[in-house]
Design a protein that fits this description.
Elements (H helix, E strand, L loop, with lengths): L1 H10 L4 H12 L3 E9 L6 E13 L2 E3 L1 H4 L7 H20 L4 E5 L2 H4 L3 H12 L7 E6 H5 L2 H14 L2 E7 L5 H7 L4 E4 L1 H4 L6 H16 L3 E4 L5 H9 L4 E2 L13 H15 L19 H12 L4 H10 L12 H8 L4
Parallel strand pairs: 2-4, 4-5, 5-6, 6-7, 7-8, 8-9
Antiparallel strand pairs: 1-2, 2-3
Length: 339
């Protein structure tokens, strides 16, 4: 009996097998979401996270989206995956004390009117404010069905959901999208960000994109930040948010609180350069008493998170030297003196 089954599988259309495998993976809970923080390069504030799909195909084999999504992007199973991702991401951000959750939507789904209904249902099911969800689409996804995509995105904006245009600058009609699509932010592709601290052309392009986006009321996220010099440049030109391995890689949900603490520490360490310091950083510390500093370091050595340390200091009525309550970033700036 096993031989005919093997033969049937071998003769099945290539596009069918990934669909069947992914449906089985979805039922077997093999699909997981990893999360990457989105951070302000000027203040260290973590705005939220981006959800990124992974397939735990085998115990020691974690597949990236490019390994399996291209085969199903325009098939019915993609709708099932999108619905699952949105529901899982909404459930997770509702459990975390974080800001926004960004989710990627494929070309075939961004033109599907039922996407709005699915998102509305997920938000309602988890008691989540629409403003805490950001839907990301690529320029490639937008160009495949501009009018249909615009209608769905307008409905999402009416709902209160944010819309981000991903991979900005890699397509051919970026300005057209900014004019005709109701986006709230643009994400600069890593191909430009990677060279901002080394190549004048990349720096000029990224600076121009930031100015253009701000001139029409959009926020900007820079992807692929891996070096402190890149983060400093992006802060100097007014880029709103960044994400990348400098702060944290995509991480399983159990690791996210620790990675966010790491992101805050990374920002605090990078803030030592005069180029990174904004003029009005209200909670920035000038000096901290030795007693408070020692207590912070002791709690950190015991494994307490930045948020936990800040809560303990506030509980005891301690203020920063600026007269403000403690927060995770201000704790991070104290600890960064040890970095």
């Amino acid at each position: 009996m096993s031989r005919p089954e093997t033969s049937a599988r071998a003769n099945a259309p290539r596009a069918v097998l990934p669909q069947r495998q992914l449906r089985a993976a979805l039922k077997a809970a093999e699909l997981v979401l990893h999360y990457q923080p989105v951070v302000s390069p000027r203040t260290g504030r973590v705005r939220g996270v981006e959800a990124l799909l992974r397939w735990q195909h085998q115990p020691d084999l974690l597949l990236m989206p490019d390994d399996f999504l291209p085969a199903v992007t325009h098939t019915p199973v993609m709708h099932d995956l999108t619905t699952w991702v949105i529901g899982e991401a909404c459930a997770q951000i509702a459990r975390w004390d974080l800001g926004t959750m960004s989710v990627n939507v494929a070309a075939g789904d961004i033109v599907r009117p039922s996407l709005v209904t699915d998102i509305d249902a997920a938000l309602t099911a988890h008691g989540l404010e629409p403003q805490r969800l950001v839907v990301e689409l690529t320029e490639h996804a937008a160009v495949q069905g501009m009018s249909a995509a615009a209608k769905v995105l307008h409905d999402l904006r009416q709902l209160g959901v944010g819309v981000s245009l991903d991979d900005f600058g890699t397509g051919y009609s970026s300005l057209l999208y900014l004019r005709d699509l109701p986006v709230t932010e643009v994400k600069i592709d890593r191909v430009f960000v990677s060279g901002v601290d080394q190549h004048d052309d990349d720096a000029a392009i990224v600076h121009s994109v930031v100015q253009l986006a701000h001139s029409v009321g959009l926020s900007v996220v820079a992807e692929g930040v891996e070096r402190t010099t890149q983060a400093r440049f992006l802060a100097d030109i007014g880029c709103d948010y960044v994400q990348g391995f400098l702060y944290a890689p995509p991480t399983p949900p159990t690791e996210v609180p620790r990675r966010i603490d790491q992101a805050l520490l990374t920002d605090a360490s990078a803030a030592g350069s005069p180029r990174r310091r904004p003029r009005n950083r209200g909670s920035r510390l000038t000096t901290t008493s030795p007693t408070t500093t020692n207590r912070i370091r002791e709690m950190a050595r015991e494994g307490a998170s930045l948020h936990t340390i800040a809560a303990a200091l506030n509980h005891d009525g301690l203020l920063t030297d600026a007269g403000t309550r403690w927060s995770a970033p201000t704790v991070a700036r104290v600890l960064s003196t040890d970095l």
